[in-house]
Structures are given as C-alpha cells and as structure tokens.
Amino acid sequence: MTQLVTQAAGVPQISARDTTADDRLERLISLIETLSKVLDDETQAVRRRDYASIGVLNDQKSRLTESYGEQVRDLSANAPASGEVEPRLAERLRVRLRKFLGLVEANARALNAAKTAHERLIKSISDAVADKAQPVKGYSNTGAYGVSTAVSRSGSPPIALNETI
Q1: Most distant CA pair in the chain, distance
Q2: From the centroid of its chain, how far is CA 9?
Q3: Which one of 35, 52, 83, 142 is CB 3.0 to 4.6 Å from 64, fit for a cystine?
C-alpha cells in the first residue's frame, strides 16, 4: 500500500481546466496595463526627445498591440454570458479601458506633434536652401539683368523627409 501512495505522489497530475471568461478578462486587463505603461513611457520619451527609447518602445507597442487584438478577438468569439463575469472584474476592465483610451489619445497627439515639428523643420531648411540657391538679382558681368541659370530653374533642393516617424 505504501508503494501505491509513493507512486501516486511521484506522478505529477495535470488537471485540464477550461479557460473561463474571468481568466480571459484578467489576461486582457493585465495586457491593457502593460500596454498602457508602454504608451505612457513612449509619450514621455517623445516629449523628452529620447529617440533611442522611442524605437524600442515602438517595437514593444507593436507586439503588445497585436496581442491585444488577438485577445479581443478571442474574447469576442467566446463572449461570456451576462452572469458569467464577476461584476468587480467587469468594472476593473471598464476603468482600465477608460485610462487606456486616454493614454492612446495622448500618445497619438504627442506623436503627431513631433511629426509636425519635424516636417516644419525640414521645410524650413529646404526653404532656406532654396532661397540661398536663387540667383543674385542685378547686372551680371556681361551687363545682362536677372540672368536665368540652371540653379534658379531647378526648383526645390533635393531634401526629403523620412516618413517613418
């Protein structure tokens, strides 16, 4: 009899438990909290102009966003019944989602402002180069006035904005 007890104790038993709606909501809340932290960190990095951090955070944000989409699709496909979800858990999800949506908006504003600022800087540089490249108005060595040169007909200088911002 002691052998049976020893054998039973030595064999790990795995109980298969179905994932409940509460489990899926807990995972989603955890993911929203992690994604919220990354969004907030990215927004702060944009404001500090910490470009090295922005790249790393953007990669994390992409992975987490993909996982968020998968979890939302899974939750939608396995929609819980109205009484199946614990009310406190549902309220926690609502609170986290409100905060998350606020962070998404703040992040989008910060990224859009940074993009606009970079575009304006590039345009200012381009305009300054174009103004500098304009021919000098007045008489040339040959006595002609306002000589048209190839530089003046070339248009805007070849400066392009990297649109991966």
Answers
A1: 119
A2: 49
A3: 35
Could you tell me if 113 and 48 are in contact, meaning their C-beta atoms sit under 8 angstroms apart? no
At 131, list the tokens.
Answer: 């103004």
**Angle, nearest 10°, between helix axes 51-77 and 21-48?**
160
Tell me the β-bridge partners of 139.
Answer: 145
In the DSSP assignment, the letter for residue 82 is T
- For residue range 11-34, list pLDDT tens digits in order: 555 544 567 878 888 999 999 999
Q: How far apart, in whole angstroms, are the C-alpha atoms of residue 44 and residue 163?
A: 21
pLDDT, tens only, 33-84: 999 999 999 999 999 989 889 889 989 999 999 999 999 898 888 777 777 7
Q: How far apart are the first and last CA of the chain?
A: 70
* 73 residue type, one letter: R
Among the listed residues 105, 99, 95, the one whose alpha carbon sits nearest the alpha carbon of residue 43? 105
The tokens describing 122, both together, are 């590039």
Q: Write the CA distances from 45 to 35, 75, 119, integer angstroms.
A: 15, 32, 19
Cα–Cα distance between 165 and 161 in angstroms, integer? 9
Q: Could you tell me the two tokens for 24?
A: 């899926």
